[in-house]
Design goal:
The protein is of the alpha/beta class. The strands form two sheets. Strands 5-4-1-8-9-10-11-12-13 form a nine-stranded mixed sheet, with helices on both faces. Strands 3-2-6-7 form a four-stranded mixed sheet. The structure holds adenosine monophosphate.
């Protein structure tokens, strides 16, 4: 089963304690598709400007990512400039230039309107809603956002919440959206507005998946060195939804396995700048890291009598 993603297709300039990169491939849709395409087929809906180095998408195309829903418009591409200091869990946004995204009106190609798995990646919630309205009868719609949109488009976000099945946010975004400091309460606040699953990511401290009746937790894979955390969240979503689409199974047990795939794909994304590591990682390396994750979290219960 294939996944449809709408999100930013960007040029990122990033500073971390380990180095700098300028105008590299970035954006929520690119990280998501670089990750999910390792598991299933992905189609991207978005827009780039006339300055976008379109040939840099070739490795993704070669891997089968469908860019028939990616428009090219006159003007500047979406650009994001961010910095991480020694706390690699939180990005500081220095500049956001929406460029051609500010006048974009997504038109989903007819063949993609039947998509069963849809990821509304981080972008203007009005565009996320536009995409949702053009999809016929999806099995799973997941949605992500960030502080920039929570500040500027709150009413649109609240409308979207009632239309989606699953929400992925990081802990700061969940607190900002719900105005609850406690993450269990924040998840309950979101669940009460419609979604059946809420995933709250905590960077190197792992991720929770909440439903009305259960909580699951997956650690982040303990890496010896994290190089650039940009895109970890979108790569997590790519692993998570890619795994669900690949297996076609939305049972609770499989959703938990999908969280582990999310965590594993997030851990690869942060090993290099941009989508570089997601382009070089192999299926055996992914499988091995999933096995290592299982060893990391398995223990035998031996309660005293
Ligand atoms: P994350 O997975 O949360 O680290 O997402 C990183 C990506 O988000 C970067 O590649 C940016 O290009 C993209 N991004 C940053 N700000 C925005 C925004 N306001 N809307 C959409 N995408 C953004």
């Amino acid at each position: 089963m294939s996944v449809l993603v709408v999100g930013s297709v960007a040029l990122d300039s990033v500073e971390t304690p380990f180095g700098k990169a300028d105008d590299v491939l970035g954006g929520s849709a690119n990280f998501f598709s670089a990750s999910a395409s390792l598991l299933t087929k992905v189609s991207v809906v978005g827009v780039v400007g006339s300055d976008y180095p379109i040939e840099k998408l070739d490795p993704l195309k070669k891997r089968g990512v469908d860019f028939s829903g990616l428009e090219r418009a006159e003007g500047a591409s979406f650009r994001w400039r961010g910095r991480y200091r020694h706390d690699l869990n939180s990005a500081e946004t220095l500049e956001t230039h929406l460029g051609v995204f500010s006048h974009f009106s997504p038109k989903i190609p007819e063949k993609l309107r039947d998509s069963q798995y849809v990821f509304l990646a981080n972008i203007d919630p009005r565009l996320q809603m536009d995409v949702l309205e053009q999809i016929k009868k999806p099995r799973l719609v997941a949605f992500d956002t960030m502080n920039f949109w929570i500040q500027s488009r709150r009413p649109d976000l609240l409308r979207l919440l009632s239309r989606v099945d699953l929400v992925t946010l990081n802990d700061a975004e969940a607190r900002q959206l719900t105005e609850k400091f406690n993450l269990v309460q924040a998840a309950q606040w979101i669940l009460a507005r419609g979604p059946r699953h809420v995933i709250i990511k905590k960077g190197e401290h792992g991720a929770f998946m909440f439903t009305e009746s259960s909580i699951f937790f997956a650690p982040a894979f303990p890496l010896e060195s994290v190089f650039d955390p940009t895109g970890a969240g979108d790569s997590f979503a790519g692993g998570f939804i890619g795994y669900l689409a690949m297996t076609g199974d939305l049972s609770e047990a499989n959703m938990r396995r999908a969280v582990i795939y999310g965590s594993v794909m997030g851990s690869f994304a942060v090993e290099k700048f941009s989508i570089d590591r997601l382009l070089s990682v192999t299926r055996p390396e992914i499988d091995q890291r999933v096995r290592d994750m299982r060893r990391l979290i398995t223990f035998e219960e031996d309660l005293p009598a």
